[in-house]
Structure formats: structure tokens, C-alpha cells
């Protein structure tokens, strides 16, 4: 990790816990669900270094379910900054809590500006995207040919803790927590689906909030469901997020396999935890639920197309990533402008085979 990061001469300003013991720390969480999961080792690190401090998590409303049952935060503030009124309301909430320190994980100028306008005196984060003057310090990512060199996001966020002089444990596995109430909700829903404790459950996650470029074609998922049903005696859970109802309808309509479509139940990100935890294996696009599986120690086959695998190349002991090296990938575009070959060249048979390998089945 260190060879991909330049640690600046700001070291005398670091938040070394022997020099300063802040009473209240604001942590600005990443925006994407998968990034929030990959930031959980950083949340854990800060909590371990400051067990008596009041930690405030600043997070998007839709991602609150990822962290709300965890022991990291004493308070959670939902971000609503899309309007001027929402921005200033957010700033006032921060000012009332009077954090002495802010650790800003997103790379945006706006995320640092919110902390500065919120009256925080010491703000730390990556010194990039023109926000240097808003920060008191932080690491600088290594640049090559004008671009930031990708490293796993787990390590990327933890580099801020290293820069701050905090004690960082060697084990950096993402983790998720579930309250008893959430686990009970999960059990009730699984019972309503007709899933018993003895059933093998396999999950399919065909959507992606990022955009259609990350989505393996619905007809491929439909065929994969058939292959799974032919190979395993199992219950198939189709995980569907907001706005993905059409994807689910196409998969169900084109497949002869029997599936349980979770879409009508509006499964939120808290309830998603016990459902994925119940799966024997998950087949997923490169999106949030794949990181749930990693954090919950569930085998997962990831179908990856337009994104750079180096951002997520960590904690892959129970993960197989399938991707094709095409001349246009990784493009990081939300919608493919060509023929989506990076995804369509991955066949349902190849995905099934990867699943069998993860479950250590002989072929």
C-alpha cells in the first residue's frame, strides 16, 4: 500500500492519540454502498483508537442501514445537501454537535466544505480535487500519467488512519452488524418465502445503482437461474433494489427456473444483511451486495465489466471475479457506448462453473 501513497510533510499535524484526545469526531462516510462496507475497517480503527470519544457518522440516507446496528457511531446524521436549504440544515446540525475533528472519506470538495462550514477546526482527508485549503492535512494518492493509481478501497481509507498516526490492526476485513430486531425481520421474511432452516439458498443480485454498464444482461441471469436449478436443489433469492423492478421482471419472464423475487418487499439495506447471510453462495454484479457477502463471509461470484478490479482486490478468499480484458475496459462509464462486450462475453456456464469451484465441487 505505502508504495502507492505519498505521505506529506504535514506529519507534525497528525492526530496521534498521544498528543490529542478529541471528545467528538465527525466521520464523513463514502457515498456508495460498497464503499461504505469497504470503509468499515476504518470505522473500527477509529473507534478502537478513541474508545471514549463521541463518534458521529455522516452518511447518505439510503446507506444508513449499512452502519446503524454497528458499535462505531454514537450518532448518525443523514446527509441531505442537494439543495441550499438542505446544505445549511446539515451544517447547523454539525455545529450543534461541536466536533473538534473531522475525518472525511469521500474525495469530493463538497464533503470537506461541509465539515469546514460546520465549524470543525481540524479536518483530515485525501488532499486532492482542489480541496487542500479546506483540510488540515492528509495523504496524497500517488499519481501516474495524470491519474490516481488504483488501490483496494479498504487500504485507501485506512491510509488516512496511518497518516494520522493511529494504531491500525493487521486484519482489515470489512464487517457488518445486525441487531436482533433486524435478524428477526429476516427470519420472518424467509419463513414467508417458504424457506426452511434445511433449505440451500442461493442469491442472485442482477442490479447496480451505478448504472446499466455494470449489469450483466437479464437474459444471462435468467439462464444462470436455470443452470443453478438443474445443478442444485435450492431456493433462489432474487435481490432487487429500488428502480430495478424491470430487471427482475425480465429475468423472471425469461427463465423457467422458480425464483423468489424480493422486489415487492422493498428490502432495505439493513434487512438485506440477514438475507444474504442466509445464502450458501451469491452471484452478483460488481455492486453493494457483493461487499455484503465478503463482510458476512459468504462465497460470491462477481461478474465485472467496466470497473477496475484493483479497487476491490482485497479479502477475496471466498470470491471469484469474472471479467474480460477488452480494449475498452475498464471505462468506468455508467452506460456502455459500444456493445457491452466486457459483460456479454462472460457466459452463464462460466459463472456456474465459478460457483461450483467456490463450493469446492468436483467437475
What does this structure look like?
The radius of gyration is 21 Å and the shape is globular. The model is unreliable at 1-13 (pLDDT under 50). Helix content is 33%, strand content 16%. Helix 9 links the parallel strand 11 (235-238) and strand 12. Strands 12-11-10-13-14-15 form a six-stranded parallel sheet, with helices on both faces. A five-stranded parallel sheet has the order 4-3-2-5-6, covered by helices on one side. The chain has a two-stranded antiparallel sheet with strand order 1-7. Helix 8 (218-231) packs across helix 9 and helix 8 (218-231) packs across helix 13 (348-358). It is α/β, with parallel strands linked by helices. It has two domains: 2-163, Rossmann fold (3-Layer(aba) Sandwich), CATH 3.40.50; 180-358, 3-Layer(aba) Sandwich (Rossmann fold). The longest helix is centred in the N-terminal third of the chain and has 14 residues, at 84-97. The protein has 13 helices and 15 strands.
Features:
Rossmann fold, alpha/beta, 363 residues, 6-stranded parallel beta sheet, 5-stranded parallel beta sheet, single chain, disordered N terminus
Oligomeric state of the chains in view: single chain
In percent, how helical is the residue content?
Answer: 25-40%
Q: How much of the polypeptide forms β-strand, as a percent range?
A: 15-25%
Gap from first CA to last CA: 37 Å
Output the radius of gyration: 21 Å
Got a strand count? Answer: 15
Helix/strand/pairing category? alpha/beta
Named CATH topology of the largest domain: Rossmann fold
Sheet with the most strands, sense and barrel status: 6 strands, parallel
* Spans of at least 5 consecutive residues with low confidence: 1-13
CATH class of the largest domain: Alpha Beta
Strand order in the largest sheet: 12-11-10-13-14-15
Helix and strand pattern: EEHHEHEHEHEEEEHHEHEHEHEHEEHH
Round the mean pLDDT to the nearest integer and report it. 90
CATH architectural category of the largest domain: 3-Layer(aba) Sandwich
Please, what is the CATH homologous superfamily of the largest domain? Answer: Glycogen Phosphorylase B
Number of helices: 13
Count structural domains: 2
Task: Write down the overall geometry.
Answer: globular
